[in-house]
Amino acid sequence: MPFWHTTAPMAAAIAAGPRVGLYGVYRLWRDAKDAPTRLLWLDHMLLLAGAWLIGMAVARASATALVFAAVPAAALILSWVYQLRSIPILPRLGGYALVISLLAPGLPVVLVMGAVNPASANTASSGSVQQMAGIKVGGMGMSKCRYDVAGAALDKLPATDIFAPLDIGPDLIVKSHDRVVATGHHRGAAGMHDVIAAFMAPAEEAHALVRKRHATLIAVCPDIYEPAVYAARAPKGLMAQLLHGKTPEWLQPVDIAPGSNIRFWRVLN
Q: What pTM, to 2 d.p., does this model score?
């Protein structure tokens, strides 16, 4: 989504973060000593500007702009730090604070929101960190799921269609001879829709979507981010039930791949 649909700290990071790099690469281009170096920094400037515009339109793409901005921003900040070392301590500290605010433009927004409404600031900052980092929440760390173990076990059974969260679909395809309904590829929009809708729907509605896709197995890695999102946003949905050990009557838990930490259910009808 565009940056204006994100939280305020996230929007500030997307819209303002790469601009430090843009100014930095402009300085590098302006001060270049020869034509080849000027051309190099001009190329960098155009790439960064394009990535910044795309990132503002598609929030998840903004990380690319930040990568392009890293080197020129570092050069610019370093020059500022050298200049700040020659001034008295109090103005120097103010300068360092300004530098930090430029490197982390979402931070001043959080501080302002905190002064106005502490509760909203906590919610916004937490949400923006999760969005930007893509980290697992709910105390989750490194996943224990072993797709090689699951794949070896699945290959001993007839090939079938598996209804699984989008993020584990590629691993199941690569490690086994089975098929999945969808992975996180945009051209598979219809399959992606059905996977997301089913895992967030009540059990009977989910049943209709699973049958529509002719899946005979449901597979879930319980300690990654995606299932947690479905369960949090739809507490009465299929994924929330499965993660809490509640199995609808049209499913049967099966221990297909012991040691894989992946949970499987057979579709009964």
A: 0.60
> What backbone phi and psi angles, to 5 degrees, belong to 213?
-95, 5
Task: Assign 111 to helix, strand or coil.
Answer: helix
CA–CA gap between residue 73 and residue 21 (Å, rounded)? 4
Beta strands (DSSP E) in 65-209 are: 161-163, 179-180
**Which CATH number does the domain housing residue 251 bear?**
3.40.50.12610
Distance, CA of 216 to CA of 220 (rounded, Å) = 14
Contact 209, 201 (CB under 8 A): yes
Measure the CA–CA gap between 93 and 166, rounded to whole angstroms.
47
Q: Residue 102 — pLDDT band, cuts 50, 70, 90?
A: confident
Where in the sequence is the domain holding 171, given as residue range(s)? 147-267
Residues 20 and 101 in one domain: yes
Q: 140-176, pLDDT tens digit by residue?
A: 568 999 999 999 999 999 999 999 999 999 999 999 9
- As given in the structure block, the two tokens for residue 244 are 């809490």
Do the Cβ atoms of 188 and 169 come closer than 8 Å?
no
Residue that has been written with the tokens 């290959």 in this structure: 155
Q: Which helix (H) or strand (E) holds 73?
A: helix 62-84
Q: Who has greater pLDDT, 138 or 260? A: 260
